[in-house]
Design brief:
11 helices; 462 residues; alpha+beta
Length: 462
């Protein structure tokens, strides 16, 4: 293998490892990253700002604050060292008046002399005090004598005591002369301006996110068969474009439904006219066993035509409105009992749900009717929480094999041994029911019933 091949192999191996590491990090971060656009956008703004402020603060603290404080402390210690040299070099100044005057007027230091034994015991060091550390280092480096300092006793002064041969020199220096005191102001302005900018960014971002949320609400309402009357394109250009595309799509779907309904109305009128002529002609011919069979065929054809038109027509433009589901389920129970079946109803939760009343009742009615054709006992249970309305219809009939539970929703499907095989049936009952449920943004699922038969579960969002 040549050197080039070896290099390419190493590059490919490194690329695979980088890709695997990237995928692992992506999966690791995905678990705790926010899922909402608003939260992610805020994170995109906050993280760079925090990182930038941290870097700026670190650079300032390390390069400016620490350096300036060390230099100021070194300058104060140099002045003190000069005063000690004057003290040792001019013993003729017995009362130290000249030394105090020079320190006060020229160096802005207050100097006093205490007896030799007047040195306080060492106190506890502050947990974090750059001034205390800097002064200690500079005194040890430039003076090299026993000392005691107090940087926390007075907010504006620093007390330093130096052990001399025959006395203890006590010096009071201004804290601002040995410490970069304007650092807090810098940090305050940095944090303050960042907070103001962040608040402005949050308000601006909220206004930009609101049109996206309105678009999502309008699309969700349309998917559940509800209207969003106050929706119009707003926000940024891209959001307006998406909103306009949604409105145009909504208009095309509604036009298509209207055209289909109009076409089916025309077909229904023509076919009903022909069926009416058949009925009149059969009525004029008279009664006979052969004519009775023809009348049954005509009646069956009329029923099939009505079922097909009802399936193709859908909800007919019905508007959603708050509906008492308890009353609707009680009506279904009454209908089942009038037909000689045993039926029970239970409902849990707030019963008022926004649906298309006639359409949704027809959906449940088809399921109850399908159960009544093949069972004696029917149990209807409703449950409403903060997200969904769920209605289950259980029976004690023969049920449907698991591998055929999706097939029975296909239009015109009639199984030889299935429970939806009925005399004169069209095979559209379950198809119509699922079409209505999906028009409300939900669905219908079939499963095993605790009563031994079939369970039909209708779930729609509220």
């Amino acid at each position: 293998m040549s050197t080039l091949d070896t290099g390419l192999t190493l590059i490919r191996t490194a690329s695979r490892r980088v890709s695997a590491a990237n995928g692992w990090m992506g999966n690791a971060f995905k678990g705790w990253m926010p899922t909402g656009l608003y939260a992610r956008a805020l994170l995109i703004m906050i993280v760079p700002m925090v990182v930038l402020q941290s870097v700026v603060a670190f650079v300032f603290m390390e390069r400016h604050w620490n350096t300036v404080t060390r230099r100021l402390s070194a300058s104060v210690v140099q002045d003190i060292a000069g005063l000690i040299d004057v003290y040792n070099g001019y013993p003729q100044d017995k009362d130290r008046a000249q030394l105090r005057r020079i320190a006060q007027q020229r160096l802005n230091l207050v100097v006093d002399f205490l007896p030799v034994g007047d040195m306080p015991p060492p106190g506890p060091k502050p947990f974090f005090s750059l001034l205390d550390q800097s002064l200690s280092v500079q005194i040890g480096r430039q003076i090299g004598r026993p000392f005691w300092i107090d940087t926390v006793g007075n907010s504006s002064l620093v007390e330093i005591r130096i052990q001399l041969a025959d006395a203890v020199m006590r010096i009071f220096a201004q804290r601002s002369a040995a410490y970069a005191s304007n650092s807090e102001i810098f940090l305050f302005w940095m944090v303050g301006t960042s907070s103001i900018l962040l608040i402005v960014a949050v308000l601006f971002l909220r206004n930009q996110i609101r049109p996206i949320l309105r678009l999502a609400d309008a699309a969700e309402s349309f998917g559940m068969g509800r209207e969003a009357p106050n929706f119009r394109p707003r926000g940024a250009r891209e959001v307006r474009r998406a909103s306009q595309a949604f409105l145009e799509m909504k208009s095309r779907i509604e036009r298509s439904l209207e055209q289909r309904t109009a076409m089916l109305a025309g077909v229904s009128h023509d076919l009903r006219t022909i069926l009416t002529r058949f009925k009149l002609e059969l009525a004029l011919i008279g009664d006979s066993p052969e004519l009775e069979g023809m009348r049954k065929d005509v009646d069956e054809m009329s029923g099939m035509l009505e079922a097909y038109l009802a399936f193709a027509r859908g909800d007919g433009g019905e508007q959603a409105q708050p509906t008492d589901m308890t009353q609707s389920l009680e009506d279904l129970r009454s209908d089942a009992e009038r037909n000689g079946h045993s039926a029970t109803v239970q409902f849990h939760g707030l019963p008022v749900v926004t649906v298309k009343p006639a359409s949704f009742k027809r959906c449940l009615g088809n399921l109850v009717s399908n159960a009544a054709k093949h069972a004696n006992a029917i149990a209807i249970t409703g449950h409403r929480d903060h997200r969904y309305l769920t209605v289950t219809i259980d029976d004690d009939g023969p049920g449907i094999p698991p591998d055929m539970r999706e097939e029975v929703f296909k239009p015109f499907l009639r199984l030889d041994d299935a429970r939806n095989q009925d005399e004169g049936g069209t095979g559209l009952g379950l198809a119509i029911a699922r079409d209505i449920a999906r028009a409300h943004g939900g669905d219908i699922l079939l499963g095993e019933s605790p009563q031994g038969g079939l369970r039909a579960t209708v779930r729609i969002p509220v």
